[in-house]
Amino acid sequence: MSITSFLPTDAEGGFCGDISGYKYLQSAPKTSMVPPTRTLRIGGLTPMTTLDYPGELAAVVFCQGCPWRCRYCHNGHLLPSRGGEQISWSEVRSFLEGRVGLLDALVFSGGEPTLQAALPAAANEARSMGFKIGLHTAGPYPDRLRRLLPFIDWVGLDIKALPADYPTLTGVPGSGERAWASLVLLLEAGVALQVRTTVLPGWSDEKDIRPLADRLAAFGVRNHVLQHCRMDSVPDPALE
Ligand code: SF4
Q1: Residue 233 pLDDT
Q2: 75 Cβ closer than 6 Å to some ligand 1 atom
Q3: How far is CA 203 from CA 67, 75, 131, 169, 209, in A?
Q4: Which among 213, 230, 237 has a CA at the least distance from the CA of 73?
């Protein structure tokens, strides 16, 4: 399957929309304009976990902002581009300096980490300290993801549904094509990958899960996990 059949039809940097007054998908900056790590907006830090990077002891940085508004998102505080409490990258860097040799990895999660142009520089800096770099992403920016590949060791990619079913979940037209383009990109790059799907209430094995799992397998996905929808504080009351 060629990646070109899944690439968004609009130019990634120019795609723009508005959800609840939040402007999203700003133009991707050129390399010479990449902002320094201090501009990375961070809404939270988990100092140690064994759950977020398979087989590794990791810390998790929760990046602020996401272009999508999934019906079942339970990270509502991380969706706006700026949140209430922010942690600076220099604080994270100081934390990491004290964890060299104690932690294996740093995971960038969110929100949507690839929203932020400062992410490659931050990942590169953490990696140069000896940490493996993990990324949790829903894949809304395949082009940015491609530029991030040299700095990441493992990806947990959300594939929410077949491409045509995405807008009813994310609220954003074209989101499915973007996510699946990111999947193809990661498969072609050969990066260590886990694909995750959140199973919504009312989904059936026959109608929803099996067709998705079969399509993923046909694409070459070997590590696909299902996760149950957390019903606490989901934005869509119809799911509760
Ligand atoms: S892509 Fe992830 S962080 Fe963004 S709205 Fe959906 S579930 Fe929430």
Answers
A1: 65
A2: yes
A3: 25, 22, 38, 13, 7
A4: 230
Judge whether residue 33 has pLDDT over 60: yes
Please tell me the pTM assigned to this model. Answer: 0.86
Q: Which atom belonging to ligand 1 lies closest to the Cα atom of 74?
A: 8
Least confident window among 27-31, 85-89, 171-175, 181-185: 27-31
Task: Look up residue 198 and give its two tokens.
Answer: 């959140």
**What are the C-alpha distances in Å from 146 to residues 22, 30, 46?**
25, 14, 26
* β-bridge pairing 58-63 and 42-49: antiparallel
Per-residue pLDDT band at 115 (split at 50, 70, 90): very high
What's the gap in Å between 68 CA and the centre of ligand 1?
Answer: 6
Pocket residue to mutate for ligand 1, from 20, 41, 79, most atoms within 8 A of Cβ: 79
- Residue 164 near residue 138, CB atoms below 8 Å: no
Structural domains present in the chain: 36-239 (3.20.20.70)
Report the pLDDT averaged over residues 223-230: 92
The pLDDT of residue 29 is above 80 = no
Other CB atoms within 10 A of residue 4 CB:
8
Q: Residue holding tokens 């490659």?
A: 120
* Residue 183 reports pLDDT greater than 90: yes
DSSP character for 120? H
